[in-house]
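Input chain follows. Return structure tokens only.
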Amino acid sequence: MPIYALSDELIFPPPDWAAPEGILAIGGDLRPERLLLAYQQGIFPWYSPGEPIVWWSPDPRFVLMLEELKISKSMKQVMRSGKFHFTADADFQGVIQNCKTAKRRGQGGTWITQEMQQAYIQLHRMGYAHSVEVWQQGQLAGGLYGVSLGNTFFGESMFTRVSNASKAGFIWLLQQLATKGFEWIDCQVYTAHLQRFGARNIPRSRFLKMLEEALTQPTHKGNWGNWLAEE
């Protein structure tokens, strides 16, 4: 399959034209309009520093249906313990910076380039990108961020400084989103970590149909701090 080179024009090839490994196109830019168009079509950027921007549409797609969320006995105890305090959109820049610099097993560097960091900060200012902060004794212990369109959430990255902090933030977010009518979140590609929470692979064709339906629902733009906490 050919890999498509993007120009300044805001257009992507159809997602099902992606190569077997999931690469759909290279090039282009990370301006907000292109990023939003990509997410609306089930496409996301993922590349390393010094490389051109690489756009992906993997098949299968890794998703987590909120009704299938699995919480281990130990994490249920953590959630009940009150050891963590959760907020949304209280420190987006702090969360993405920590995700960028977090040391990850088996990885020599980060895929969150400076260009990507600034692009998602801009999406946050526009009300589309959101963060969850996990606090312990007033200090940022962990967190995660992603993008939301319609009634779904596209997870991007998470970090932890304190054991179980990012797991707790992830569980808290999914529980809150379920109360807002969200049915699933996009986890992009398989990880054993998210599989333990119940995430699973589905065919890209099914993912795109689910996405099409999710985008018929209104997008809750702006700061999620108060919205997620509402009953």
